[in-house]
Amino acid sequence: MIESEGVEVPKLSNHEQRRAHILDALLRIASSSGLQVASMRSVAAEAGVTVSTVQYYFHSKEQLLFAGLQRLAEAVSQRAEAEVRSTALLSIRDTLQAWLIQMIPVDDDQRASYTVFAAYHALALTDPALAQLPYTRNSGALETAIGDQIRTAQRDGEVPPDRDAEAEAANLLALATGLGDSVMANMRKPEAAIDLLRYHLDHLFRTD
User: Fold this and answer.
1) Range 69-204: architecture per CATH
2) Whole-number mean pLDDT of the chain?
3) Is the domain 1-59 a CATH 1.10.10.60 member?
């Protein structure tokens, strides 16, 4: 083990582990204090490594921030996939619900994720360098995947054929995001937000 500023840090055996360790430190800072205080130096201190180590893996602050966003998106995706596997979901409707519920903060991990995503969005509005990075591509990819699932459901007769799959996907993503905002603002409980999401999905998948 090595120690830095009183923090005991495990000796990491490969580049991927060290890179992930640094990104996790960034996400902890973003969740607790906001991205505005995240710097090469503060991330190095949180990770218990030198600034030069952080710079070895990430050549600029923008590159570090973007990589952190990608790691967070991967973690959210893994949670959704685990939910699908653990409940043996078979229907497209239930799969979409499992994906979209990840945007509604029902526990501490999801609240932390939501806080960090919001911090990235807020920073991109005022940071030209970050705004130029494709930081929204994960949301775009999810919207595309939702649209593909809806088209499959239409072919299977689970969603009416006259629905616009792209528009429905955009609406679902916007609804889940807005419901997440309302939970974070204490406008409604997570359970109430999930009920509203289910209500919308029930109407989308009605064919009678």
Assistant:
1) Orthogonal Bundle (1.10)
2) 84
3) yes
* pLDDT, tens digit (0-9, with 9 covering 90-100), for 33-57: 888 888 999 999 999 999 999 999 9
The overall pTM is greater than 0.70: yes
**Separation CA 109–CA 7 (nearest Å):** 23
Digit-coded pLDDT (tens) for 151-166: 999 999 999 999 999 9
Name residue 114's amino acid. Y
Q: DSSP 3-state assignment of 4?
A: strand
What ranges do the domains of the chain cover?
1-59, 69-204
Question: Cα Rg for the chain, rounded, in angstroms?
Answer: 19
Residue 121 tokens read as 């969005």
Contact yes or no for 171/149 (Cβ under 8 A): no
- Closest CA relative to residue 197, chosen from 94, 109, 121: 94
**Residue 91 φ/ψ region, left for φ over 0, alpha for ψ in the -120 to 50 degree band, beta for the rest:** beta
92-101 and 190-204 helices cross at what angle (nearest 10)? 150
Q: Which amino acid is at 207?
A: T
Question: Whose CA is closest to 99, among 162, 148, 30, 28?
Answer: 148
Give the sign of the dihedral formed by CA 52, CA 62, CA 141, CA 198: positive
